[in-house]
Design a protein that fits this description.
Helices cover 49% and strands 10% of the residues. With 286 residues, it is an alpha/beta fold. The strands form two sheets. Strands 3-2-4-5-6 form a five-stranded parallel β-sheet, with helices on both faces. A two-stranded antiparallel ribbon has the order 1-7.
Length: 286
Amino acid sequence: VTLPYRVAEKPAEEEMEVLSGGSLAGKSVLVVDDEEFNRLLLASIFRKWGVKMEEAADGEEALRKVNERLFDAILMDIHLPGMDGKEITRKIREGKNEKSGVPVIALTASAPSIDTTNYSEAGFDDMLSKPFNEDDLYRKLLECMKVQIEKTEKPNMKKEKKNAGPDRDGTGRRYDLDSLLRLSNGDTRFFKEMIRTFISSTGEGVDFIEKYAGEKNWEKVAHYTHKISAPCKHLSTQALLEYIQEIEKLAKQNRDDSSMPGLVQKMVEEKNILVTQLENELLRLP
């Protein structure tokens, strides 16, 4: 009996993910993001790849640094205090020198299915949704810089574990540190610094959301919910993230919804549980 078989395609989750980074070694990248956790995360990745990184927390600082030197690429967060990422990028493109042509990649915590037309019209070369994996970041930088992968460069066979957090009404651990642990590359000091930064920035963000929701300042509520959503995704804090996303959705609709106070209260309670668990995690680390 002859049974015909065809060679199966490799499942997406088994694809080789992260290249060693050698092709980007020595390149310079400006990261524009007002969230410290995101900047620290990118600094760790770029350090492994030998990429020189500078950072800016707002539009004014970003434009000043762009005027001071020529970067090989810019990673631009969209939602920033004052000037947003689109406005900053338009101002860069209005320049009359070689710096105006620097590749700019938009970073957004919005859904990956959003319309990319507006980003192209604003002058972005590409966009990347947060949270991103190293493979996506690496390949987009290569494409924008028009850099060829070195023939001697070997893929990293490690796969990023994608564990979802618990249901928000469930019990147990409220986070997943596997991705962060992998990025730390054995550096316990960095690993602990990232956890502390998350506790600080997310705790502050939740406090601001509670404050501005009480004042019915929906623009501010939407800003802070959006700001802390990416770090929550990086640590798979699913329970907290669900409350944040529901609050952001209502805030963007400028709705004084009757469910808002309850959502805010549950968000605060979930944040307190999460922070306690992460602080206990820090105590267990050497």
